[in-house]
Design a protein that fits this description.
single chain; alpha+beta; 14 helices; 7-stranded antiparallel sheet
Length: 433
Amino acid sequence: MAIAALAGVLLIIAGATAFCRLSHKEEEVLKVPNDLNACLTNELSDTSSLKDIDRLVKEYMHYWALKGVSLSVMRNDSLLFSKGYGNADTDTPMTPGHTLRMASVSKLVTATGIMVLQDRGQLSIKDKVFGPEGILNDSVYNAAITDSLYYTITVEDLMRHKGGFSRKGGDPMFSTRWIMMQNRWREVPTQEQLMKLQLGRPLKFEPGTTQEYSNFGYLALSMIIEKVSGMPYEDFMQENVLKPAGCRNFHIAGNYYKDKHPDEVRYYVQKDDEPAEEFNNSGRMVLRCYGGNNVTGLSGAGAWVASTPELALLVASIDGKDEVPDIISPESVAAMTEYVNPETFSLGWNDTKPNGEWSRTGTFAGTSALIKCFPGGECWVFITNTSTYKGPYLSQYTSELFDKMREACSDKFPVRNLFYDTIEIPESQQVEQ
């Protein structure tokens, strides 16, 4: 009987049956989440009691000229609602299974990878990053250092944007074309070349003493993950963070529409956005969201693509609540969500307040993302496939939208958990055995 039950579980996980879920008895033992991108449909969240959410989202989309939106809501690690609005691509309706670039929300993913390594004893966030005693102690990097302050940077400094890096001279992660021209490089610089280039420059402030938002710092964290684990960044994250969390469809983004993953959306910019020069210094003019920046090169600073229900599942796996098993220790959950002071970023999160409110934002051409966890256990995840002239400030308006939707519907969500509940797969999506 045990062998037969196990075989049945494996068959379901492989997606070869007409259902996406184990029985509740098996679920309690194995705690295997649904294949959310395959199972969830808009119809599952299309209930009359939640029509105010539909209305408010559509009004918001109309006001900001958004082509498509994905929204998921969970409470105490139970996924209550997941729905797409507008279009994912030309004439293709958005569904919960569509994946979207999440921009700097990727930093939360990377920070989780660092905490996994710390839990395993493979590093400490107090470890030094550079110099002979640092993690990135390759001789070529040691030789490039001209400012001794680099020797004081810790992993935690990078996670809190306190590494001493500044964007005043241009963010190196969004200045590829200028870097190529200044250095007379014909090829797009590698991560290693960017690192050597940065190490040859003085820091703008003493590490740990103040903060300035740094995409480069999270590129360095991605490289730390590679060095410590001995694996490519994406491979380590897939095997040791995402799969253990039950997230099957996270990917590193491509730079162009032709490079998009199956079920990934098309991205759009605001109507008055001028074409941009291609990031690789080709001289071509491109749509800013497709070739204006080296999105793939952002790595753990901003390159992840995922659906909102799987992003919610990852949050459920690092929040300390019981319904979804955590993939990091209680100590790591506490460290990531610790409130320090108003001038200090949290580890991976933008902000974690003393009252239990956590937030993480992400924005660049073609997308805007917001995760907001509220006191009382609710978490709302929202990603668009369209950018606006507000840029990173759009998240403030999305946060206000959350407040309106919560006031209208927080007490109207059905009692369920779409992470685990039995969901029948539509016949058109079933996999033949």
